[in-house]
Write a structure and sequence with these properties.
With about 190 residues, the protein is α/β, with parallel strands linked by helices. It is about 25% helix and about 30% strand. It has a single domain, classed as Rossmann fold. The protein starts with 6 loop residues before the first helix and ends in a 10-residue tail after the last helix.
């Protein structure tokens, strides 16, 4: 049996890929996580989110915020495990910042957990954090299913939780990509 919360679990679902990929950050990598392949299976996702919930059991926040698209399903799953929680999401505006639409509002001082499916640089999470702070709320913690940050460090000064940490995955600017130089075709797995 495959243990939940592992690379083997992701590989079994087709959510952990090897090749030559264009990341959301516009960088290239030989490793890609398409966690929609995990989130499409609620019973496979549930143990992943339970691991996060267990790690964050002392975080007193009742609002869970996910960035659209990757954070919406994990946010809902996490909120379902917390008493009296609600879920909202932030989405990109025309100018590229994250904003709350659809009537979503936060109260001044409201405690929030931000959750994302996978993190590379943390830029999406930082944009959501800015949207939360703009409304006067407070980010109590950040969580992600997969932390593939460049060096294992995070750009946050608040509690950070992840299920799987995979530092050291290489990424390159397109002009520095060794796979491009080798003529390996570039894949766009989200399309």
């Amino acid at each position: 049996m495959i243990e939940p919360g592992t690379l083997e679990d992701l590989q079994d679902l087709g959510a952990y890929l090897r090749g030559h990929f264009l990341l959301t950050t516009k960088r290239h990598s030989d490793t890609f996580f398409i966690l929609a392949r995990l989130t499409e299976h609620p019973q496979r996702l549930k143990p992943w989110v339970a691991i996060l919930q267990d790690k964050m059991k002392d975080i007193d926040a009742h609002t869970i915020v996910g960035p659209a698209m990757g954070g919406i399903i994990p946010a809902y799953a996490l909120a379902s495990m917390r008493d009296d929680a609600r879920v909202i999401f932030a989405e990109k505006s025309e100018t590229g910042i994250m904003v709350f639409r659809r009537g979503f509002r936060l109260e001044a001082g409201e405690q929030v957990i931000i959750i994302e499916d996978a993190m590379t640089t943390g830029s999406s999470i930082l944009k959501v954090r800015d949207a939360v702070l703009e409304q006067g709320a407070h980010v109590s913690a950040v969580a992600t299913l997969v932390n593939r940050s460049f060096d294992g460090q995070t750009p946050f000064r608040i509690p950070f939780f992840s299920v799987v940490d995979i530092p050291g995955i290489e990424t390159w600017l397109p002009e520095e990509c060794r796979l491009c130089r080798q003529g390996v075709p570039l894949s766009l797995p989200k399309q």
